[in-house]
Automatic annotation (TrEMBL):
Domain of life: Bacteria
All residue ranges annotated as the ABC transporter domain in the record: 2-200
UniProt GO molecular function: ATP binding; ATP hydrolysis activity
Identification of the protein by name: ABC transporter ATP-binding protein
EC assignment: 3.6.3.-
Organism whose genome encodes this protein: Corynebacterium matruchotii
Gene: cbiO
Amino acid sequence: MADVDKLVIAGEIGRQTALEYLEYTFEPGVMYALAGRNGAGKSTLLLTLAGELEPVSGEVTFGGTPPGDVTNAGNIVRVSDPIFLPDLSLGEHIELMQRKTKVDLSDALATWQLEELLPLPPAQLSSGQRQRAFLAIQLYLPTQVLLMDEPERYLDTHWQQCLTTELRNLASAGRIVVVATHSADMLAACDHRIVVGHHG
């Protein structure tokens, strides 16, 4: 089947009304940027690609089936705002994720310099530390498609560069990486740029 392991959209994105018609094939091993002004539809497109929002018309498929289909469970991960359970320390969050996903996050903790923060509850972390922790937990899940909504927010220049490197590595390892971003560095690091809402 020609569509296997590709994420394909051919339809109109939007909620009640169509924002834009898109026809695009996302290939494994490639890092894509979604660019456009605020409100143009970048987040809506990510939700549609993730199968969390139906296209207004047309279809989205991953490996020939809709992204929200049970056969695609775990294949597509959308990363947006950091979400943590308030009663757990960061270390307990990491433990839970490792048990649930069977993924060893020790390298991620080192990459994102989180070891000293493990005893703390997320509420005591700065917004930048929370974002680093959230990325460390989410980026390395065993998924085939990684959809990211402004993952550079709250990060300083050093950590934005670290994020860009990690995303490039994940794409090089064969994932489809799609990033909605306003960061010039992130846009420059991507292989392809899709401008959403360019007709408006």
